[in-house]
Amino acid sequence: MATPLYVGIDLGTTNSTAAAFDGEKLTLIRNAQGANLTPSVVRIDARGAVTVGDRARRLIDSDPQNTRSEFKRLMGTSQALEFAAAKLSKKPEELAAEVLKSLRKDVEQQLGVAPTCAVISVPALFELPQSAATSEAARLAGFSRVELIQEPVASALAAGWSANDEGSWLVYDLGGGTFDVSLLETRDGLLRVVGHDGDNFLGGRDFDQAIVDEVLAELLRTQGVDIRRADPRHATALRKLKRAVEEAKIELSRTDELPLLVPGAFETDNGPVDVDVVLTRARVEAACAPLVQRSINVCLRLLAAHGLEPSQLGKVVLVGGPTAMPFLRSQVQAALGAPFATDLDPMTLVAQGAALYAASSGLDGRPAASSAQPAPSGRKVWLQYPAMSSDLSPHVVGRLVEGDSGPKPALVRLVRADGGWSSPDSPLSAEGAFVLSVELVPRKPNTFRLEGMGADGKPVPLAPASFTIVQGLTLSDPPLSRSIGVALANNAVRVYFERGAPLPARRTFRQRTVEAVAKGSTGNVLRIPIVQGELEWAHLCRLVGALEIRGDQLKASLPADAEVELTLELDRGGRLSARALVPALGQVFEQVAQLQVPDATPESLQEGLTAARERLSMLRSSAFRRGAPGVVASLSQADQALAEIERDVEAARGGDADAGQKARRGLLDLDAQLEQAEAGLRWPELEETVREELAVASSWVAQFGSPAEQTLLDEAMKACERARAGRQQVELQRHLRSVRKLGNAAFYRHPSAWEWQFDSASSRVSEASDVSKAEELVQRGRRALEQQRREELRHVVEQLWRLLPEDAQERRLAHDSGVR
Amino acid sequence: MIPFGAIIGVIVALRLLSRNQEGQSQQASPYATNSSYLFLTIVLVIPSTLFTLFGLLAGVWFFAPFTLLGIALCFPWTVARHVFIPLGWPRWASRFSYLAMMSWGSDARGGQALAAAWALLRARNPSAEARAYVEAKLEAADSPLRGAGIVAHGLMAASRGDLETARVLCRSVSLLDRRVAPRLARKLALEWCLADAAAHGRWREVLVISQKGSGSYSLAAFFRASARRLLAEPHAGRVVLISWWVLALRWWATWPLLKRAWRTPPRRASLLDLEAGETQAADRLARALELHAALARVPAGHEALALSAAAVAWDEALDSSKVHDLAAERAQGVGPLAGAEALDVLGDEVAEELAAWALAREVKLAQLEPGSDMVENVAYRVRNELLERIESAAQDMTYRLAERRPLPSEEEWRHFLALQHQCTLATSLGGLEVRRLAFDAVNVPLCNLGAWLFNERQEKAIANGMFRWLLEESRDVGTEEDCRRYQNNVGCGA
Amino acid sequence: MSLSEKDVFARLKENAFHVLGLRPSCTRMEVEREGQKLLAMLELGLSEAAHYDTPVGRMPRTAELVRASMATLRDPTTRLQHALWAQLPPGTPAAQVPAKEEPASWPEAPVRLGWRRPG
Questions:
Q1: B316: Cα within 13 Å, side-chain hemisphere
Q2: What is the β-pairing status of strands A576-582 and C57-60?
Q3: What is the phi/psi pair of residue A663, to 5°?
């Protein structure tokens, strides 16, 4: 039997790596330059020739218009990258595909086979569109089957493969662009991801950026030159400076001081400006310290979420290039206390883990033609067994293939090739099947012979005659990193797949429509938004797709409150498909619209930023007023986040699309934070409102209400009290509305009620949507008032109200969902 | 010679004339029956038919076909009902139904559509052309939409296989003003609903429908008597059953139901049967789970009792120290508080399941045993769910009204019915309090919808239907202003 | 709007222990072993693995359900929750008793009353 080929690829922000596993040992793939790491840089020249890796990276400074890096951060967005000379624009997944193609070629050169299947690693917090884009890149690169594994899981798998101890681990993975931390646990040879956390936009690059900012600050101090990231003029120079800083940073782990000289780097209105500063290790460390602390905070948060102390950790595995910095190592060590797993290469661990995972999910990369054995003779048996098993005695299940001729065995047995074990003879069931448990030798490939015997005791040849199971640490299914669900019309989320659910997964729920869709109308659409995230309000989750039922597709009109059977399906590569069955029409809808990370334009970001700032200041004043110290404290965190987002928005305005995406996510997280803070304040506010309104309503109803209304009010007041005691917010608001209505009805029976309403409405004329019309109405109202025409006054007030602004509308938040 | 050619000519002329009049005279009563054909029948068709009949009696065989045609023209609905509809010929059914304009009162176009849709329902393999014909007829009946038109839409939905919509529409006729819902349409809607409910074994629904519907009193009474016997209700005697069977006059059609209802009703399963096998459960958690699982087998009518029993068992289980010990033991290695937390989560999960069950089985909350924490929790969830559904549907209607997005008349009516149905359900489960809150939620949007339909779109019949329902609600749970407003609105006519 | 008919008894019907045919006292390795065996049997279409018993009746077993159940039981927190619901074994005599039926329907009613074509 030829050795299998399991390929794993770490598609990184700065560098990519491939590794292969043959069931026994791991091999790292070397590229044409003989290196394990291939820079994730793609260059397309004027003739359209594509260069990938080191050769492309060398040109990134001199020819930035035609050389692109760090496109991984844009995966899943619609952002296209331009190549000026070739006049081409490429999507991020197309560029990633070029890198994958080059790695695939390296595998072919080293091992002689171009793999058709592979496992590719993705950051743990990748959202669905990003995962889908990665799968798409693999398909473009010529892989026919691909599975994704989360990077921390891959590194843990690789680390666990070579270690023997059991317990809790932390994988600290600081890549070029993302930071992931995962808490893992090994017990009984089984690896379990207990939880993960991370910062989707904290990476080595941000360290460089921090040092660049430091250098720019120095320029301002010493030469009085103010260089802003938002200025597109400086984009090239900044990139050059960043490269210099990158090199200096590596150098500084050996020396204490280093001069940084970039002559004539920046063009300003007063002529060119040189960069000439001395970087000291202490200064660099001081600049990076907040970033390291941020990463440590994430680790501590994760440990706390699972009730663990840092002292309970068995080991910390460091992954990623930036973790080589001695300063970072010592800080992390000091904060977490646990020893580092030292024998592992932080740069290639992920690829190794991906290759191991390919083995445990049986993803043999050999093309079908070469892996096919010469047609074996014997009765065909359909076998099911794990290609890789952590269990020392897994089951092997087999069934005779129906329709195959040849002598039929009555008994079967399994014999381990080393002769150390054999199963008892097992009779076949009525379905021609057998279920046997086998014994494995630990940490080795175990080959078994399948032997059949006829009723007469003579051997019957079976095909396949043998198979191999590798014993080792396994992980059976890739878990989902964030819950996926459907946004409902009331802004709630119906979760279809919980975080940690194994992939592939499929689930059907019955929903009901809240709005009618008329047959044949194109403008009339029922939207079913699909969201990803852990928050209970839909508007705080990320929209990852939407299923649309359009009027022009309908056989008959879809009434409100019709049943819709919605099925969501996720494959192992993170591709989402959705289908909606409308039983009343017998029609199925499958088009999933817009599976993309939304664009982040500087304008929309600015808008979001302004809104967040306003909300924050309102919240703060209301928190102070109510004396809620907990809320005030949580708002100071939001303050920091806001400052950071502001910086990113500014960078986005300077043309940095990646910073724009970062800002977009930051805003969403900030929203969630503010929402929480608001929830803490809402209840006391509501209680106070209820108290006030109850007093007002009962006095009006007592004066002007009918006996029936008095009864209704008494009942509503009782219900209010009950809801208040049970802290049922929605219920309380509902009864409050009811009380308000009764109070209002009584109030308007007062002879001067409309007069008062008119006074209050006319004082808000400046807010009206059409001020001149409103003023005209006010004049009419005055006349009506003078002439004591109550009906007309009322009419005027009602018209005025229509011109005044209304409150925000909830459903618009919930991604416009049309189902509940 | 009988001037049949002339008769038909006169019909066409009258038809054109009546159309012109519709266009010109606005003063004519909107509820008036189009009596042109009646006039024609008395003046021309009956005398001619009598004449041919006498001729036939005198032995002039030549008159035979004319006599038959004459008789057919005298009783057009009978011909449509017993000849063309069973044959599944929508075109002819619709034409004869037009001649039967007397039976359709103020909704002759609806009647035509109804006959066509019914014939389509009876057709073996209806052609696309026949379908298109019926759809055109339905469209013609849409402006304005009245009782018979609504039933026609219902039958059309049934012919598509969409029974749910058909049910909603056929039942909704009882909400309309009788002047715009002809008796024949009400009768047919009632019969269809009864047949449908019986076919699906929903005998409890048969009881409700037969009480609410109108137009076919004796048949409804017979179905009610049968359903009561089948459901083994007290005092459901055979005398009543047989009397209504005789009076309903549909002897052949209803014979199997009579036979079935005549037999002794089966003894009812009591909850005691269920409990007998379940007392061996040792600990409280298993006991609660057992009663919980037993809900899957609770017969209709015992829901409240069974739910209360399960809820009380859960109260006991969640309070029991043994169960806490068990949870703590199972939680070893997860954390010190995990056991207690898991029980809290369990409590929430149970409440959610019980509430979903209560909602699915439409348990009346007032019948639940008071004093149990779990019952309170379940009742709160059910109430909240019912109201949230109503609020979100009302919100949606508000948006649609704000955007002035019109739907076809029939769908406007269905949109209202969906909301009205939810309110009715909420009231029946949650009682007066939920009724008040539901009314508060739908009052404004429904009133606006009705006003829009009435004033701008001339859909007075269905708008009036909406106001009638709103009036009924506001009498019980609205303010005086609400009552007065809807009285006025209903008074504006249909 | 969080309640729907599909939720009724979901926690008994889709209990991970019932799906895998295990009791709450089983070990982690048993979960993996049983799950792997069931997945293999389902893949080969063996009738033995096609159904599982719950306190509310027999349910069809699918590969997705088995995989999800394995994941559920790997995580101690979710396992604890399922263990509480699985306290009642699926084989209780009550589970086998069919629900008391409503009086039988009269399916030919629409035909008899003229609303549908016979046959």
A1: 14
A2: unpaired
A3: -65, -40
What CATH topology corresponds to A484-593?
A: Substrate Binding Domain Of DNAk; Chain A, domain 1 (2.60.34)
**Cβ–Cβ below 8 Å for A559 and B415:** yes
The CA distance from A353 to A361, in Å, is: 12
Tell me the fold of A1-163+341-360: Nucleotidyltransferase; domain 5 (3.30.420)
Choose between C69 and A250: higher pLDDT. Answer: C69
Closest by CA position to A6, among listed A366, A281, A337: A366
Give me the DSSP letters along B25-46: -S-S-TT----HHHHHIIIIIH
Chain B, nearest residue to A717 by Cα: B433
Q: Residue A763, class by beta-carbon neighbours within 10 Å (0-12 exposed, 13-18 middle, 19+ buried)?
A: exposed
Rounded alpha-carbon distances, angstroms, from residue B355 to A705, B311, B386, C5: 36, 11, 11, 10
For domain A377-471, the CATH class is mainly beta
Measured between CA atoms, the residue of chain A closest to residue C5 is: A510
* Average pLDDT estimate for A462-485: 78
Ranges of each domain in chain A: 1-163+341-360, 164-340, 377-471, 484-593
Strands A563-570 and A587-589, by their bridges, are unpaired
Mean pLDDT, chain C, integer:
83
The partner residues of A395 in beta bridges, in order of sequence, read A437
- What residues of C are in contact with residue A479 (Cβ under 8 Å)? 71
Question: A74: helix, coil or strand?
Answer: helix
* Architecture of the structural domain at A164-340: Alpha-Beta Complex (3.90)
pLDDT category, B468, cuts 50, 70, 90? very high
Whether C19 shows a pLDDT value over 90: the answer reads yes
pLDDT band at residue C101, thresholds of 50, 70 and 90?
low
Helix (H, G, I), strand (E, B) or coil at A128: helix
Assign residue A188 a region: left if phi > 0, alpha if psi is -120 to 50, beta otherwise? left
How does residue B432 score in pLDDT terms, banded at 50, 70 and 90? confident
CB atoms within 10 A of CB B262: 13
Report, in this order, helix, strand and coil percent for chain C, each rounded to 5. Answer: 50, 5, 40
| Confidence at residue B176, expressed as pLDDT on a 0 to 100 scale | 86
Residue ranges of domains in chain C, CATH in brackets:
8-92 (1.10.287)
Would you say residue B45 has pLDDT above 70? Answer: yes
User: CA torsion, points B395, B401, B402, B405, in degrees to nearest 10?
Assistant: 120
Closest approach of C46 to chain B, Cα-based (Å): 29
Residue type (1 letter), B249:
L
Whether B139 contacts chain A with CB within 8 A: no
Shortest alpha-carbon distance between residue B291 and chain C (Å): 10
Q: Across the interface, do A728 and B405 touch by the CB < 8 Å criterion? A: no
CB contact under 8 A, C37 and A395: yes
Q: What is the mean pLDDT of residues B187-202?
A: 91
The model's confidence at residue C51, banded by pLDDT at 50, 70 and 90, is very high
Q: Categorize the per-residue pLDDT at A370 as very low, low, confident or very high, splitting at 50, 70 and 90.
A: very low
Residue written as token pair 């409990």 = B275
Task: Say what the pLDDT of residue B271 is.
Answer: 46
Give the best residue of C19, C30, C64 to mutate against chain A (max A CB count within 10 A): C64
Residues comprising chain A, all counted: 820
**pLDDT range class, residue B423, cuts 50, 70, 90:** very high
User: What's the pLDDT at A793?
Assistant: 86
Spatial CA neighbour of C10 closest among C42, C49, C55: C55
The region, left, alpha or beta by phi > 0 then psi within -120 to 50, assigned to residue A307 is left
Total count of residues recorded for chain B: 494
* Structure-model confidence comparison of residues A160 and B486, the more confident one: B486
What's the average model confidence in pLDDT over A444-456? 87
